[in-house]
Amino acid sequence: MRKACTPSKFVADVMNKVPPSGIRRYFDLASGLEDVISLGVGEPDYVTPWHIREACIHSLECGETSYTSNYGLIELREELADYYAAKYGVNYNPGSEVLVTSGVSEALDVAIRAITNPGDEIIVVQPSYVAYVPSVMFAGGVPVIVSTKLENNFKLTAEELEAAITPKTKAVIINYPNNPTGATMGKADLEAIADVVCEHDIMVISDEVYDCLTYNGGHTCFSSLEGMRERTILLNGFSKAYAMTGFRLAYAMASPKIISAMMLIHQYSMLCAPITAQIGAIEALKNGKHEMEKMVRDYDRRRHLIVSGLNRIGLKCFEPKGAFYVFPSVESTGLTSEKFAERLMNEKRVVTIPGTVFGEAGTGFLRCSYATSREEIEEALVRIEAFVNGL
Amino acid sequence: MMDNTTRHVLECLEEDARISHEKIATLTGLTIDKVDKIVKELEESGIIRKYKTVIDWDLAGDENVYAIIELKVSLERSIGYLPLVERLYRFPEVRSVRLLSGQYDLSLTVSGKTMKEVAFFVAEKISTLEQVQHTTTHFVLKTYKEDGVILHEQDHVSRLPVTP
Questions:
Q1: Cα angle, residue A287 at apex, residues A282 and A288 outer, rounded to 5°
Q2: Is B78 on the interface with A (CB under 8 A)?
Q3: Which candidate from A301, A353, A374 shows the least CB-CB separation from B162?
Q4: Tens digits of per-residue pLDDT, B47-75?
Q5: Are A304 and B27 inside 8 Å of each other by CB?
Q6: Torsions phi, psi of A380, nearest 5?
Q7: How many of the other CB atoms lie within 10 Å of CB of A177?
Q8: How far lies A91's CA from each of A82, A95, A98, A223, B54, in Å?
């Protein structure tokens, strides 16, 4: 008889070091429940605008089903370069400085792998998107956490960043507008960060997937700051602005050397992003502005509704200026984030995500997404109020 | 150019004409007094024409039939379209009047209890007008979308309850 196999011993060590996703747990808990209102969803509740879907359908009818350039369709890269030049005044060469990827998730993974040597430290600013720390670990890097604070409206300060930098630091990952807090950083805030990264000669991976979703003031693109273009790997995608999550389409913009390095990984793993999604993205950039702005105004109204509602209930939250999340504190209730979220789900059928899922800095907070209909937000507020009053 | 605040107020009312000013205030972050003032100005300036309800008359069991009538008309140089248009829109049967580019000049929406009633109305009241050279009547068989509102049931697309 042949020797029995123990599959677990073949799993790489790093897999056991990466903590399981906290989101996954809430997904499993929520999946079995009826009459649930979910404020736990990190994607738009809109369906992709029809003109974008229609462009994709037409391309399929025309038989556009092939691979594309590894970099992505040149027409899309040119549209992207034009868009950045017009909107942010930053110029990228569509031939050598743009890489189209399958979602920002892929762009993030590839960016980190392209710059990380074993043992390099990558600073992750938390609370943050759940993929940053694991992506650094998979790449053999060492994640170093910087926690932002409510008192600074969850902005990263130059002092906090500087304190985390060591001779081994390679880069810092920032994400503004931020998931999960909804925080934004203005030009002056970012200039202070630019000074620090320059002085210590480190890179910036700037995840700006929520750049179109800002309220009361526009977005500042990190690479548009003086001297930052070469130092930045800019990541952005179509999921949030154009309600295209399922298309899995995004891009990275950086200097040619960095894009070439990222391209090495991308071409041997993903090969290219799906052509149908790329065609949809071209349509979005060409003709999607009007509908996108309408969606943003609608998010803005829901934002007012949920922020004022939560504050009225006594779950204090600062005013988020971007993305579609609000990050109330549950400290006044005496419950932990996890306990609050779990009881609220079980007792009132409202799904929220405890802030701790996004790092220790989220302790005492809750992420509520307002990318859901106004009626659902109103009903969720009624249920949350009943829950809090019953404590 | 309209300011962003006004646009927010108009979009709230366009979506739901019965929305309270208190609710608009919550959604926009304005005070109720400010919302009152903006809405009053919009009403007075005629930007808000009226508040109306989109009704699925078919579903309500109403027997009304609708027809779109295309008119080709002759113009008298000194008068223009207005005298004719004024004659047309005074008929309560005429629900809308539009001046068009292209092959036809005017498009009317006409309603009546039966197809016969609509056909006679067009034959007796519209075709006989001196300036009307030609009419084409299209009866509406089914309305799928009215004033931006889709009137037939659509499949519900569901998202996962929790995503990062």
A1: 90
A2: no
A3: A353
A4: 999 998 888 877 888 778 999 999 999 88
A5: yes
A6: -60, -40
A7: 26
A8: 8, 12, 11, 10, 48
**Yes or no, beta carbons of A40 and B164 under 8 Å apart:** no
Q: Report the pLDDT averaged over residues B15-24.
A: 95
Interface check for A21 against chain B (CB to CB < 8 A): the answer is yes
Q: What pLDDT is recorded for position A243?
A: 96
CATH number of the CATH domain containing A298? 3.90.1150.10
Q: How far apart are CA B15 and CA B12, in angstroms?
A: 5
CA A242 vs. chain centroid, Å, equals 14
Kind and range of the H or E element at A135?
helix A132-138
CA distance A205 to A183: 17
Residue A242 pLDDT more than 90? yes
Residue that the structure tokens 């609000």 belong to = A326
Q: Assess whether pLDDT exceeds 70 at residue B157.
A: no
Q: What is the pLDDT of residue B143?
A: 86
Average pLDDT over residues A283-312: 96
| CA separation for the pair A11, B34 (Å, rounded) | 63
Please list every residue in chain B whose beta carbon sits closer than 8 Å to the beta carbon of residue A351: 161-162
Q: Report the interhelical angle of A374-389 vs A289-313 (nearest 10°).
A: 20
Based on the fold, state whether residues A357 and A224 are members of the same structural domain.
no
Among A271, A287, A303, residue at a domain's last position: A287
Whether residue A58 is found in the same domain as residue A205: yes
Residue A161 has pLDDT above 70, yes or no: yes
Strands (E), A94-209: 98-101, 121-126, 142-147, 169-174, 203-207
Q: Quickly count: other Cβ atoms within 10 Å of residue A189's Cβ.
A: 19
Task: Count how many residues are written for chain B.
Answer: 164
Note whether A38 contacts B12, CB cutoff 8 Å.
no
CA proximity to B163, closest of A45, A37, A42, A237: A42
Asked if the ipTM is above 0.90, the reply is no
Q: Please tell me which residue of chain B has the smallest CA distance to A358.
A: B164
- Domains along chain B with CATH numbers: 4-44 (1.10.10), 65-141 (3.30.70.920)
Angle between helices A289-313 and B21-28 (to 10 degrees): 100
Q: What's the rounded Cα separation, in Å, for the pair B77 and B85?
A: 15
Domain that holds residue A327: 13-48+290-389
A327 and A360 both lie in a single domain: yes
- Which residue type occupies B132? V
* Pair (A93, A177) in one structural domain: yes
A105 with A222, same domain: the answer is yes
The verdict on A41 and A56 lying in the same domain is: no
A237 interfaces chain B, CB cutoff of 8 Å? no
Nearest-Å Rg of the Cα atoms of chain A is 21
Number of domains into which chain A is organized: 2
Give per-residue pLDDT as tens, A21-50: 788 788 888 888 889 999 998 889 999 999
The answer to whether residue A8 sits within a structural domain is no
Residue A95 tokens, joined = 């031939």
